Each structure stands twice: as structure tokens, then as C-alpha cells.
Amino acid sequence: MADHDRYSETNPRNLPRSLFAISLGLASVVALSLGTDQVLHVAKVYPPWGQSMPEPVLNLLALSYRLGFGALGSFLAARLSPRNPMRHAMILGVVGFALSLLGAVATIPMHLGPSWYPMALVVTALPMAWLGGILDRPRTV
Fold first, then answer.
1. Is 80 domain-assigned?
2. Inside any domain, residue 21
3. Alpha carbon of 114 to those of 22, 41, 46, 125: distances in Å?
4. Has this prediction a pTM greater than 0.85?
5. Residue 45 located in a structural domain
């Protein structure tokens, strides 16, 4: 299917493909985030799992790659969507927002690190999804 077909309203809906696109986008964000976390724990950049990480620089590092992975996941959701790519990217953003909000509510009272970190994940979920959707838009030459 040509890229321009994905932006056309004549392209039929395909729920299984939509679910696949969003699920793969989400799985990529989770796998890349946790995989990078694991590498940084093994390299002893981060403290062992379950210990607090109060250093702002390490939290900024984690936030930076999570922002990139969030945009990448939404790009994948948009790219693989059967139609309405931006809608798929933003649906993934809403899922990310909800999961980040639940994570913030659960982890802030545990004092695992600065409170701004989980709040930043909540605040940036939708903008990163939008960025991922924009990156999938066709280019005009």
C-alpha cells in the first residue's frame, strides 16, 4: 500500500492492524526503556534495582531516553497504522499518559527518586506521541 493511501479516508478500517500497530508501539517503548535501564544498572551507572536514585543527573538521563523512545513508539504506531496515523500515535500517547500517571501515583510515595521525574513522564507523554505522529507525515519536496 502506498503511503498516501494511509492518509486517505477511502482506506478501510482494519481493527486487528490498528491494535497491532498500537501494541507494537507500546511494546517497543517498554522494551527499549527497560533494556536501556538494565544496561545502565549492569554498567553500574544506576544503583541496583529497587534502590532509590535521587541524583537529578541520572533522572534526567532516564527522562531523555524515555522521551526519545516514546516518540519512536508513536512513530511506529503511526507508520504501521492502516489509516489515520496521527490518531494511532495519539492513542498510544493516551495509553502512555495513563500508565505514567498510574506509575507516578504508585511511586512518588515510595521516594525512589525526585518527584519531578514521574511527573515529567506524565506531562511529556502526549507531546512525544504527537512528535512521533508528525515524524510519520509524508514529506513534500
1. yes
2. yes
3. 30, 18, 14, 18
4. yes
5. yes
Domains of the chain: total: 1
| Per-residue pLDDT of the chain in tens (141 residues, 90 and over written 9) | 455 455 555 556 799 999 999 999 999 999 999 999 999 999 999 999 989 999 999 999 999 999 999 999 999 999 999 999 999 999 999 999 999 999 999 999 999 999 999 999 999 999 999 999 999 988 655
The answer to whether residue 60 is domain-embedded is yes
Return the C-alpha cell found at 65.
531516553
Domain of 82 in residue numbering reads as: 14-135
